[in-house]
Structures are given as C-alpha cells and as structure tokens.
Amino acid sequence: MLQTRVIPPAEGAYQYPLLIKRLLMSGARYEKTREIVYRDQLRYSYPTLIERVARLANVLTAAGVKAGDTVAVMDWDSHRYLECMFAIPMIGAVIHTINVRLSPEQILYTMNHAEDRFVLVNSEFVGLYNAIAGHLTTVDKTLLLTDLPDKTADLPNLVGEYEQLLAAASSQYDFQDFDENSVATTFYTTGTTGNPKGVYFTHRQLVLHTMGVSTIMGSVDSVRLLGTNDVYMPITPMFHVHAWGLPYVATMLGLKQVYPGRYDPEYLVELWRKEKVTFSHCVPTILQMVLNAKAAQSADFGGWKIVIGGSALNRALYDAAKAKGIQLTAAYGMSETGPLVSCAHLNDELMAGTEDERTTYRIKAGVPGPLVEAAIVDANGNFLPADGETQGELVLRAPWLTEGYFNEPKKGAELWAGGWLHTGDVATLDTMGVIDIRDRIKDVIKTGGEWISSLDLEDLISRHPAVREVAVVGIADPQWGERPFALLVIREGHEVGAKELKEHLKPFVELGHLSKWAIPSQIALVTEIPKTSVGKLDKKRIRIDITEWQANNSTFLSTL
C-alpha cells in the first residue's frame, strides 16, 4: 500500500455520506411538475413523491421497522414500488425485492434466507403469501397493497392498507445520516442450479451506479439515450436488480416516470402512446412480445429508445425494431454487477463506417462505462490479450459490484477469485475496448473438437424470415461429444425444417462466419420457448425438454 499524504478535514467539515436520500431530493429541483404515473389510476408530481416517501417512512417506523431490518415487497411495477425503493433504505432498513415469478418454494426460501421481518403484499399475491406464511420463520407483520376498492385482505398480522396508512401518517420525516456502506437492497438471482443466491448492495454502491448509468446514457454522444426531457417507462421488473437501477436515475434527474403494473403487451403499447414514452429497457423476449402485440402492428414507434440487456441482442430483432422506428442499444450487466457495466458505443472511426458496421457494434455488449475495468482471463486466471479474437472469461471491477452473496461466503469468494468479479461469460475485448459476449461458459457447445457459440448461432438462425424466436443448446452426441440443437418458434403462415435451415446457414459457412459443424442436425418446432422468471431463455429447462422429447420420439422434431 502506498504511503500517501492524507490531510484531516477541518474542524466542523461535513462528512458527506453517499445515501439514497440524496437521489430523491435531487429530482424535484429540476422539474417539480413532472409526473409519476401509475397505469390509468394515479399521477402526481415530484413534491408529492417526496411527501409520500416520508409518509411511508412514518408508517414503517410506527409498525416497528428498525434500521437493519429487512422489509420485503411483493408487487408489480408501480408508484408504490418506487416509494418503497426510497423509503425503506432511507430509514436504514433493507428492501428485499421479491421475485414474484419464482416458484412458491423458492420464494419461501428467499424470504427465510433474507430474514424478512415485514412484508408488503399486493392483493394479487395474497393467496401465494398465505400458502407459505406458515413456514416463514422471521416475518412479524404484513401490509396490504391493492388497486381494488376493497381495502381488506386475509393476511396474517396485517397492519393495514397502504393508501389508508399513508393518508393518516405525517408528511414529514427526519431522515438521518448513517454509514454509506450500510446495506440498502437485496434480491435473489435466478440461477439455473441450486437455490437462488442473495445479492446485496450498499447505499454507496447504488449512488455510484446511478451516477455511472446517468453518465453512460446521458453523456456518450453516439448513444445519448437519456436526458431530463425523456419520458421513462421500465419494461424490466422492479424486482429484478432494481429495474436495472433506472428508477434511481430517473428520479435523480426528475424525469416523468410511467409504471405499467403487470406487463401486458397491448397495454404497454397503449401507455407508450398515451404518455409519450421515449425511453425504456428490457430483455429481448419482452421486446419481441411488444412488437408482436396487435396494437403494435399499425404503430410507428419513432423516438422510442430502448436499451436491451439480460440476453444477447441479435441483428434480426434490431432490424425489426428499427423498421418500427425504435432505436435499440445493447448493454451488458448481471445481477451481481448492479447491473450496468457497459453500453454500445460508436466512436468516430465506427461512425464513419457503413451502416452494417455500425449495426454490428450497436448490438455488441459495448464499451465499459466510467470507473469500470474489464479484462478476460483463461481457466487459470491468466490475463489474455485484448485483440478482438482471443476468447476468455470476462472479469470486472467497479465500485458498485456486489461484494459477495448474503450468508454464503464460499460462493462469494468464488465470485471474486483473484480480486476480479467472475461473470461466467465467454467474451473478447478489442483494441477499442469493446466487449463482445460470445456465450455463457456453460452454454458453449463443443462438437468435433471445435467450440461453437450458441449466441452466434441463434443470431444467424434468427435472420431466417420464417423464424420468430430461436434458442440453441448443445446436446450429448456419442460421436461428436455435443451437437447443436435448435428450438424454433415459426411466424404465422410460414414453414421451415432442418433442411431449409441448413440451406439458410450455408452462405454463412462459406463466408467464414460459421463452422460447418455448427449447423444443427435437429430442430424442434414449438409454440413457445421456455423462459426464466425475468424473461431470459431457460436453457436448463430446454435441455431437459429435449431429452424427454427424444425419449418419446416426439413428432415435432425435424432432422436432416
């Protein structure tokens, strides 16, 4: 450690902690009249948001919530969720954003593991909550959230209904300073093996992530995604990594914010039109659902900027969105990274290139943002060259990355082996600093001694005009070790089989974009591809399904 010169602060100098309350208080100074909108049911200004956060803080404190307690939320995307994202950590408690799409058994596990003491429950989840309530080990009280006229529910240890309690509470609360390294949020990963893991973030980390995201999206000119005049609507659940941290950014900047409740593609299009939404973010499958909505068929989405993350953005989806007026931009992150660490960026050299070249870089994972360090390593932890060709595991450093998993030190040590956060993604870095994700380590297909990227193959298959959705996995093969297997959802009125798919992929083989061994010899035509609770392709489930189909000689399999 360097022996640097440190000067103690002057007597009485204020030691400014980086706390979430600073983000809330910033928004109203820019645009006091901008609105927080919840569906077609409620809209209010930023001064009202600040007042409601204070009221909620008083409700929670009166109910017995103390600093350090964990308060869980079971709700769809709403103004209430936004208020909870501020009020709960601002009183020194920890907000647990429950993934309501997990199985009841997994939800029970996460609530007991997180040691939840207080739970806010949407009326839609009362049945789900009551089914597991008898097995909860730490919960003391519940609070009802509802859009219904009936403000009662059969919840154990119910304190009352959200709006009624807020109306009766004081609109003033003295939010105290405390250590910026205090835990503010926790949630659980949607891992494909074992129990979900608890990820947590401190106030300091979330404030720095907010500043980093606002810089990436508001100051990088080739992207220029988000500014104070934008209208923000998340299409990433608020229970998933704080909706990628964008509600904190939107609130800090005083943006008009639109919260859609439970996602319905038709209603999302309606809200986009009615509220003049200009900025959103989501995974590719959610965007595909929006584009397939009936209301979207006649819509011109010009001016709508959408950041795509969670899964690779393929060219076919990029082109389909562009044809409807949507500007897509790829970004990269994961639950453990807060999540955003990089975003697509076109430098002067790329801006001077062809449209095809620009598109190629708009759909890559992008350039690491300010304060983010990225590298690639081999299986032994040795650093590899950033030449755009050498592949290795992507490792990261940034001031907002989670420092471990809650109550699982061994898994946290594995995550941070060698002092870098290990992403589990195979990637390249080029001389411009661009991250190109080639695959998840566990999803790379090894066939005939060659490594094949399932993401590359999915991208090329998706360009067939008959293909609406595609997922590729490796399946065991006695001769080649593994062979790629593709699941396809076909567009209405189209047909395609393994032979037609082979003909489609041949030109890419001839151009050197694809190995001949990468052409799937088997495909399955399905009406829906399994997804995880946050809309990503569920490749673990897909592999199990394929094994069962092959054992039963299912008729919808097509072979060469």
Instruction: Give the proportion of residues in helices.
Output: 25-40%
* Count of folded domains: 3
CATH class label of the largest domain = Alpha Beta
Number of helices in the DSSP assignment = 18
Q: Which fold name corresponds to the CATH topology of the largest domain?
A: Rossmann fold
The strand order across the widest sheet is 7-6-5-3-4-8-9
Q: Tell me, what's the shape? A: globular
CATH architecture field of the largest domain: 3-Layer(aba) Sandwich
Features:
560 residues, alpha/beta, Rossmann fold, GMP Synthetase, Chain A, domain 3, seven-stranded mixed beta sheet, five-stranded mixed beta sheet, 18 helices, 26 strands, 32% helix, globular
Summed up, what is this model?
This protein is an alpha/beta fold and 560 residues long. It folds into three domains: 43-201, Rossmann fold; 263-441, Rossmann fold (3-Layer(aba) Sandwich); 444-559, GMP Synthetase, Chain A, domain 3, CATH 3.30.300.
Question: What does this 3D model show about the protein?
Answer:
The protein is α/β, with parallel strands linked by helices. It has three domains: 43-201, Rossmann fold (3-Layer(aba) Sandwich); 263-441, Rossmann fold (3-Layer(aba) Sandwich); 444-559, GMP Synthetase, Chain A, domain 3 (2-Layer Sandwich), CATH 3.30.300. The chain is 32% helix and 23% strand. It contains 18 helices and 26 strands. It has a seven-stranded mixed sheet. Strands 12-13-14-15-16 form a five-stranded mixed sheet, sandwiched between helices. It has a four-stranded mixed sheet with strand order 2-1-11-10. Helix 10 packs across helix 11. The relative contact order is 0.08. The mean pLDDT is 93.
